[in-house]
Design brief:
268 residues, mainly beta, Neuraminidase, four-stranded antiparallel beta sheet, 1 helix
């Protein structure tokens, strides 16, 4: 992505030949989602922030069409970035989760039908999701949920089962806030990034087991500064985990050097 001379957000593509082609101009935000088959993306236009656009592309043709999905949208200010919808595409390619600080919708990209998921309330405030990630088998939806405007009072892990409709808040030891999540390939374990209120810097990793609800700290002797804001990813093979691991200055929160680390995962 880049900005045009008119300060509009522009989506660009390159096929590795050194040429860069504009796909769309005037995007609402940088929030995108790529289809599981890699042949299309979903985006939002600044002129119609409640209507997702599907961009299908290959080397010979790029086509952008408005979907039949209509989502409620209300922008309270031009800097209210949390009102812009974020997108999580279901592994099947048919369902898409659209979420912002107000609502979470599951939409069928083929039929245009949508339904809102109720994430519950806290002290009479409606919960909303700051991150949503589908399990590899498509059965579960993991969400980081909270209430109110930043700085929010908490960030918890909520798991929704689209097969049964069951929803669970997963308690993390010592009431840590959850910053980022990634699924194991088996769809029964989640690796999460949390903060520790008792530590001055860095984050911690916990492995959550959906079968028994237990959470176990991983690599407790290490501090992971900065990964909560960028995230982490479990490889499809299950053999490694990639994450940002910036180097911070001694006794400071300032990041001195950014880098990516790959952690091998052994069988347990």
């Amino acid at each position: 992505m880049d900005f045009s001379p008119e300060n509009q957000l522009v989506l660009k593509v390159s096929y590795g030949d050194g040429k860069i082609q504009d796909i769309a101009t005037g995007l609402a935000s940088s929030n995108l989602a790529v289809a599981p088959d890699g042949q299309s993306i979903i985006m939002f236009s600044a002129k119609s922030r409640g209507v997702p656009y599907v961009v299908s592309f290959n080397k010979s043709q790029i086509q952008s069409t408005a979907s039949s999905i209509q989502l409620p949208y209300s922008l309270t200010s031009t800097t209210d970035y949390l009102s812009n919808y974020q997108v999580a595409w279901h592994p099947s390619g048919e369902l898409v989760a659209f979420y912002n600080k107000i609502s979470l919708f599951l939409s069928n990209i083929m039929t245009g039908q949508s339904c809102e998921l109720d994430l519950g309330k806290f002290e009479n405030q409606k919960k909303w999701a700051s991150q949503v990630v589908w399990s590899p088998n498509g059965r579960f939806l993991a969400a980081i949920t909270t209430v109110g405007n930043p700085p929010v009072p908490f960030m918890e892990l909520t798991v929704y089962d689209i097969t049964t409709g069951d929803q669970h808040q997963i308690p993390i030891k010592q009431n840590h806030d959850v910053y980022s999540v990634t699924w194991a390939p088996d769809s029964w374990q989640i690796l999460i990034v949390t903060n520790n209120p008792k530590r001055n810097s860095g984050n911690e990793l916990f492995l959550v087991n959906l079968i028994n609800g237990d959470s176990t700290q991983v690599m407790g002797n290490y501090s992971f500064p900065g990964i909560g804001y960028v995230g982490l990813s479990w490889s499809p093979t299950g053999k490694s985990i990639a994450m940002t691991c910036p180097i911070s200055l001694p006794n400071q929160l300032k990041i001195d050097k950014s880098q990516i680390c790959v952690i091998p995962v052994g069988a347990k």
